[in-house]
Amino acid sequence: MRDSQQKKVYDAEAAAFARDPDLVWFGSVRAAQRAANEVTRSRLWKALDGPAFVLIKATRSDAKHSMALPWRNEILLDMKQPSYQILLHELAHVALWNIDKRAADHGPEFVLILRRLIEDNMSVEQRIEFDKQLDARRAKYGLNGNTKVQNKLCNTR
Ligand SMILES: [Zn+2]
Q: Which of 15, 62, 88, 110 could form a disulfide with 117 if both were Cys (CB 3.0 to 4.6 A apart)?
């Protein structure tokens, strides 16, 4: 169940962004860090009670993909695929972990936070396309009765 939700999220991201000509790609870790800093200084991030600073590092060359290490306020970004959307995906993991350490990795609350980050930092068209692809796969997004996440997200409007 959880795996299939993860696959739906990954597939929706790939369908929405793999060939998106407007997607931003970082040329360096430093550029990704600057973009992360803009997000972590935003009103949305503060309302989510995200950590004031998230350190961006490159993954080791043998790593398969980017990953968040939220307990260290760190993101390891795969510089073979350093897209802005992937950065937002990893930041959503950091935000959710700080709100509720028991929430599922790619569950409904995760997707809700990711959608808000995309809405806040990418274009309306990109947000619409992502929603369309999530809906096409029936990926779950919502609060799932999670009041911790709900209370934070209510503060962001
Ligand atoms: Zn993930």
A: 88
Q: What is the Å distance from ligand 1's center to 40 Cα?
A: 18
The answer to whether 150 and 133 are in contact (CB under 8 A) is no
- How remote is the CA of residue 89 from the centroid of ligand 1, in Å? 6
pLDDT at residue 61 tops 90 = no
Residue 104 banded pLDDT, cuts 50, 70, 90: confident
Closest CA to 56 of 84, 83, 34: 34
Rounded CA-CA distance 152/157 in Å is: 10
Cα-to-centroid distance, 106 and ligand 1 (Å): 6
Cα distance between residue 45 and residue 83, in whole Å: 19
CA of residue 139 to ligand 1 center, whole Å: 14
- As a whole number of angstroms, the distance between CA 49 and CA 20 comes to 30
